Protein: FGENESH: predicted gene_1.76 protein
Organism: Rhodotorula toruloides
Amino acid sequence: MRDPPAESTGTAHLDKPDRAADGTRGVVPPSLADYLDDLPLPACVFAHSTISRDALAPPTYQNLALEALLTQNMVLSGKEILPLPANNRDRTLLDVLDEPSLAHLHVWLLDGAATAPSSSPSPRKRPHQPSQRHIALQLDENISFPKLRWRASVREGYTVLTHMPAVELVHGGGVKSAAVQEERTGQAGEIQLGELEVSADRVRDATSLEGLAFTLWHSPIGMFRVNKDLQVTQANPAWRKTIGLGPGESNDSWGNRIHPDDTERVFAHYADIAANSPLRRDECEWRWLMGDKEQNRVCVIEPVIIEGVMEGYSGYLENIDEQKAIVSASQAREAQLQTELAILSDTCAVGLSRHALDGTFLNVNPAWHAIVGMDQEAPLENWVENLVPEDFNRVMQAWGRTLETRDPLSIQFRFKNGRVCLMQITPNHREKDKATGWIGSVTDVTAQARAEEAVLNMSKEREARAKKEAEEAEQRRRIAVEEKRQQELLIDVTSHEIRNPISAILQNSDFTRSSLQQLRETLLSLQARNSLPSELSNGVLHDLEEDIEALDAISECGMAQERIANDILGLAQIQLSKYNIAPIEFDLTTSLRNICRMFKNECRTKDIELNLIIGSSLARLGPKARVFADPARLTQIIVNLLSNAIRFTAKSSSRIVTLSVELSSTRPADDAPIVPPKGEDD
C-alpha cells in the first residue's frame, strides 16, 4: 500500500505515504487525507464500492497512527525513526479483528452505507450532515488496548472510522452538536474565519478540519503559528487581543509590545532555540507593555513537522497577571513571614534552637545563650556542662530516647547558674517519619518553679499546722472528757455528801416534832380534864408550841437545802447531757397537796395566803386521778415556781399565792407558750 520511505538523512522526520501513488486520493478528498495523516488518533476509510454482502474488503486508507497501533514494531534509534519491515506495512485493521468483531463490522458498515447520500448536494443547498455512529471492536490480544471504541462518519462513497479518545467516552461517547456563532459573509451557509470562508455545516462537524479551525479561531486563548524565522503566519483574534494589537497593525509588530527590560532576553532566547534546539518544546515568560500598564504573559511553542520537515512552530499566548499576582502576594507574605519570624527569634525571651536529625545544633537565638548561660563563641554542644549534676543523667537519657523514637520531648531541669528551665523539642514535620530535623525551645521558669516550691512549702506547713491543731484538739478533747468525768464524780460526791446530813436533819426534826406534838396533845388532854399539874401550866404548853414551830423551821430549811442540792445536781446533769426523765403513774392531786404543805409554814411566817385550786379538767377524773409523768421533775418545777412566787409576793401588798392545775389531752407546739386551759367555771 505504501512506498518504502527514503533513506534517513540523520534528521527526525515522519514516514508519510505518497497519496498519489497509492490511489487514495481517488476515493478520499485530499483535504481529508491530509487531516487524517496528521491526526494522532487511529483512523481508516472504507470505500462503499468495496463493501458487499458477501465479503468485506480491507480499508482503502489507514493513517499512520492506525498503522503504528497495528504493528507496534517501531524502533527508535537516536533522533531517527526507522522504517517498518515490508511484510508489516500491508497489515490492515481487518487482520487484527477476531471473527465475531469482523462479522459485526461487516454488517455495521453495510447498514451505514445504506444511509449515505446518493449524489452531491447543490452548492446553494445545505450539505448533507454526515451521520455519526459508534462501534466497539475487539483487536488482537498482542495489541495494547485491544478493546477500542470507534466513531464512524458516513459520507457519500465512503465511511471514515476514527478511534474515540477516552475523554469523549467519559462525556458520553460522541461529539455533540453545538450552536455556532456564525459570522455571515453575505452568502447563506458560509462563515468567515479570518480571510477564509468555510461552510457552516462543515464547521458544525467538530471532527472536520473546518470544525477544528473554527474551534482554534474562537479559542479564548491566543493561538498562533510562526515559520522557522519566527515570523507570525497566522494568529487568532485572542492572540492579537492578548498582545494588544489594534486594527491595521501587523502581527509581526508583536515584538514592540515586549517590555524594554525583557526585549533583549526574549529575542536571544528564541534565537538560541532556532539555532541549537529547534525541535524542543519551549515555554517562556516575559512582561508586556499595554499602554502604560505592565502585564505578564507566558508563551508556549511546539515544533510543526510536516512530512518529516520542521516548518515552524505553533503555540499559544496567555495572560498570567492573576497567577503572577497570586504568586507575588504569596511570595511577599512568605518573605514578610520570614522577616517577622527572624525578628521574633532575635527579640523573643524564649531560647529557640534548630537541630539536625541526629540532634546536632544548627543555630540558636540570642535568648538561648542568655538562658543557658553560655558565651556565643563557645561550642553549642557544651551546653550539657552547665546542667546541675543531679539532673544530668535524667536529661541525657530522655534526649536519647527522643532521638531514637522521634517523639516530642518536654522536660524541666536546672542549670548551674540557678535557672530552672523547661525544654521542649519536637520534629520539624507533623509526620515524624518525614522529619528532617528538630526545633526546640528553652523557657526560663525559675520564677514559676520558685512559686511552686513556695506553694508546696506552704502546703506542707499548713499540713503540719493542721496536724498539730488536730493533736491539740484531741488532747483538749481528752482533757475535757476527763474534766467532765471528774465533774460528774464531784457532783455525785457533793450531792451525796450534802444530802446525807440534810436527810438526817429532816428525819431527826420530824421525829422530834412528832414527839413534842404528842407531848403537847397529852398535856392539852390533861388540861382539859383539869388534871394538869401546876408545874406544867400554860407556859410549858407555849414553849412546846414554839419548839414545834422551831422544828418546822428546821424542816423547811432542810428541805430548802435539799432543793438546792437537787437543783445543783439537775443543772450539772443538764450541762453534761445526763439529765434523765423517768415517767411513772402517780396521784397528781396528792403530790400537789404535799408540795403545798412544804410551803405552809413559810407562807404562815410571811403572812402569805397559799391556795391550791384543782381545775375542773382534773376534777372530772375523780379524787384519785393518776397521770403518767416524772413526779420528781414535776415536783422540782412546781417547787421552783412556788419559791419564786413566795419570794416576790413577800414584798407585795397583795399576799396571795395561788397554784392552779388544769390538764389537756393535746400536746402544745414546741414553740408555743404553755397556757393552762380554762376550766368550765372560768
Remarks:
- The longest helix spans residues 446-528.
- The longest strand covers residues 293-306.
- DSSP finds 19 helices and 23 strands in the chain.
